[in-house]
Amino acid sequence: xxxxxxxxxxxxxxxxxxxxxxIRQVKSTGHHVRTxxxxxxxxxxxxxxxxxxxxxxxxxxxxxxxxxxxHMVLYPASSLHNVTPVTRGTRLASFFWLQSMIRDDGERTxxxxxxxxxxRLTVDLPDHPAVVQLTAVYHNLLRRWAAV
Length: 148
Hints:
single chain; alpha+beta; five-stranded antiparallel β-sheet; four-stranded antiparallel β-sheet
C-alpha cells in the first residue's frame, strides 16, 4: 500500500481527467508500489460541499461517487477519473493506492465475481457439492494468477 495522501478542494477547484501513474515510489525508502487499485476515503460529508464528485469511467460505464465521511471507494487505477469542481464548502479526502497480488484487473474481476457467486450459493444451498467444487476453482485460479 502506498502511504495515504490528502486533498482539499474548495472555491471551484477540481482535478481533471487522468489515469493514475502505474508505479509510485515511497519517498526516502526506494520502495515501489504498483498501483493496481486506487482508493478514495471521503473525510467530509456530502452536505458540507457542492460538486466535488469523483467521476470514474470503467468497463461498466461512468460512475459519480460522493460518499459520507468515513466511507471509501476502491476502483481500478487504470480507470479514467476526475473530481468535479467544488462550488460550495470544502471537500476533504484521502487517497492512496494498493498493489494487488493479482496484477491483471480482468483476473481480479473474475475472482471477485466467482467469490460473490460462491458466497451466495453458500447461503442458499450450503450443502450443495458445487460449493466445494467452485471454491476449489477459485483457489486454483488464485494460485495460478497470484504473484507473491
